[in-house]
Amino acid sequence: MTSTLHKEEMILNLGPQHPSTHGVFRLVVTLDGEQIVDADPVIGYLHRGTEKLAEGLQYTQIIPYTDRMDYLAAMLNNYALVHAVEYALDLEIPDRAEYLRMIVMELNRVASHMVFIGTYLLDLGAMSPFLYAFIERENIVELFNEICGARLTYNYMRIGGVKWDATPDWIDKVRRLVPMLREKVKMIDNLVSGNEIFLNRVRGIGKFTKEEALNYSLSGVNLRSTGFRFDLRKVRPYGIYDRFDFDVIVGENGDALDRYTCRLREIEQSLRIVEQAASQIPEGPVMGKVPKMIRVPAGEYYASIEGARGELGAYIVSDGKDKPYRLKFHRPSFVNLQILRKLLIGQNVANLIAILGAVDIVLGEVDG
Amino acid sequence: MAEETVTPQKPAKPDKPAKPAAPPDPRTEAALSFGRGIKESVDEIFGAGTVVDVTNSKAVPVLLIEAEKWRDVVTYLKEEKDLAYDYMELFAGTDYKDYIEVAIYVYSTTHFRYISLKTRTPRDNARLPSITPVYAGANWEEREVYDLLGIEFEGHPDLRRIMMWDEWKGHPLRKDFSEFDNLPERGGEAKS
């Protein structure tokens, strides 16, 4: 009887407009009943040609463009470019600038992870955690607004330091924010992490091993969820991360639940760094001695940092001028998304959004 | 008698003493000598001239590899136990005026070392062996280089445009790309 059963595959288009694809992302899924036979991600809807534009701009002028790549963690994007140029020039950054950078970068990582928690749970169908996460994130975004004038695209870092100094009042607000955020994250943890429906939906979904993760060049939490302890803040310390005391969170199984848990625990570690930095911040200038026209010596340089979504790096090829000859960003969401096809084949279509959400992509970064 | 304008003679500038050359940075030297060691072993296995040049980018050795042996050398460096470069961190293509260059940065998670490998291909009929069979993470990166720079990767399982749409003509990241070249495809008027 089953041999005469007429079966046909259906092509389902999760079009670029979709509430759960974290941006303009298209996924062409071939279904056999409820099972996914093939999944073809189509990207490029948000490609703005940042790398081509950068070839005609001075290094400081490129910084606002980097804001728009991973717009949920713009401070880290700014720092990726600025750090690459400073690494090429061997610049010395004043201490106060480094501490300010540390505070804003880690707070931005917390904000980005809160967006992840909110939107991931919203994708899975839970409406309330989204609002809980965003209301706590609002405190961080308000602080950023105070220090640099913008809520999302900060344009705060400069080559050699930061643009605006922080008042003692602002540092005080940061100090008072940390215990409050800690409590709220614990509350979200209590509300969500033990929920049976949530656990059944994400446990064992989207698994990959450490060898597959290394082969697919995954980075960030996607790599650490397999149990491989690789955090660029510890492996290749940059800035002043070696002065702070924090742990690297690793998962065990490499499934979506581990990725959620890792990001939740990373918020606590980032808050530890912010606490230490806010208590140790010295006085001083916020901009180092930088020539007026920043020229990177001829050659090629690559420096990467631990972004909110993985390894965020800038590869600069310079011919000695004040504009880069080629600027290529290693965008973690772009590289991490490659494993999606492999994770989806064989799964039920109901697990699709749970797998996609756990990779934690931002389309601005995928397309660049 | 014609007046002679006398230009005041500037006093001769004393010759500046030549600056002593900066002492070589030990990390750069270490990187270069490590790179040369790898060049020797690779040239032994794959033939002399496989590694065309050894340079450095700060403390990272950079090996320039011949285009035809690109996949073989990358496979060797990944599978050889003493080298074990198993984690690819960057894949970038650059258009220099005479050739297009592809550079990768790979990291060894067992020996905690970093190295960069490069290869070049001419601009017309640019093709390179694909390293997707070696590092699965190179899949989309090679598609991006194909789309934006025009290098065809032989052996790539699915070489299509990734950022631009399939009917687009031209390769935007090339230095000679002009945004006024594709107007009919974009719905505008052809350049008359």
Distance between the termini of chain B: 66 Å
Give the full name of the CATH homologous superfamily of one domain in chain B.
NADH:ubiquinone oxidoreductase Nqo5 subunit
> What is the residue-averaged pLDDT of chain A?
92
Secondary-structure element pattern of chain B, one letter each: HEEHEEEEHE
Main CATH class of chain A: Mainly Alpha
**How is the CATH topology of chain A named?**
Cytochrome-c3 Hydrogenase, chain B
What does this structure look like?
The complex is a heterodimer of chains A (368) and B (192). Helix content of chain A is 48%, strand content 12%. Chain A is an alpha+beta fold and 368 residues long. Chain A has a single domain, classed as Cytochrome-c3 Hydrogenase, chain B (Orthogonal Bundle), CATH 1.10.645. Chain A has a 3-stranded antiparallel β-sheet. The model of chain A has no long low-confidence stretch (mean pLDDT 92). With 192 residues, chain B is an alpha/beta fold. Chain B has a domain at 26-125: Beta Polymerase, domain 2 (2-Layer Sandwich). In chain B, 22% of the residues lie in helices and 25% in strands. Chain B has 3 helices and 7 strands; from the N terminus they run H-E-E-H-E-E-E-E-H-E. In chain B, the strands form 2 sheets. A 5-stranded mixed β-sheet of chain B has the order 1-2-5-4-3, covered by helices on one side. Chain B has a two-stranded parallel sheet with strand order 6-7. Chain B is flat, with a radius of gyration of 24 Å. The A-B interface holds A 43-44, 47, 49, 51-52, 87-88, 212, 214-219, 228, 230, 235, 299-302, 304, 311, 313, 315, 317, 325-326, 328, 330, 334-335, 337-338, 367 and B 57-58, 60, 62, 86-90, 92-95, 103, 105, 109, 112, 116, 135-141, 144, 161-165, 172-173.
